[in-house]
Design a protein that fits this description.
By secondary structure, the protein is mainly alpha-helical. The chain contains four helices and no strands. Helices cover about 80% and strands about 0% of the residues. Helix 1 crosses helix 3. The longest helix has about 40 residues. The radius of gyration is 22 Å and the shape is elongated. It comes from Spirosoma profusum. Keywords: Coiled coil.
Length: about 90
């Protein structure tokens, strides 16, 4: 079975339909998702708006960038430490 990929804004729109009073099975049937997927999305994205999602994505991107910077600096430090120890 082919896996569908929904964007976060689409997921929030689907959840808003569910929260507005539509039956879970109706929403799942319309979008071709399982009930478990709907409830997992609800657990992860409940109460979020599009602006919150943009902020969350920006924070995730910044976190990823900072982790990469830390990894590079850690390697540079380790390399410099090995060079200094060999010279002594």
């Amino acid at each position: 079975m082919k896996k569908k990929k929904f964007t976060e804004t689409q997921i929030v729109a689907i959840l808003k339909q569910y929260e507005a009073g539509r039956e879970a099975m109706d929403v799942c049937r319309e979008y071709g998702i399982s009930k478990a997927t709907l409830f997992n999305w609800r657990k992860k994205y409940s109460g979020m708006e599009a602006t919150h999602l943009k902020e969350l994505k920006a924070l995730k991107d910044e976190n990823h960038r900072l982790k990469q910077m830390y990894a590079e600096l850690s390697l540079d430090y380790r390399l410099a430490k090995e060079i200094i120890e060999k010279k002594l």
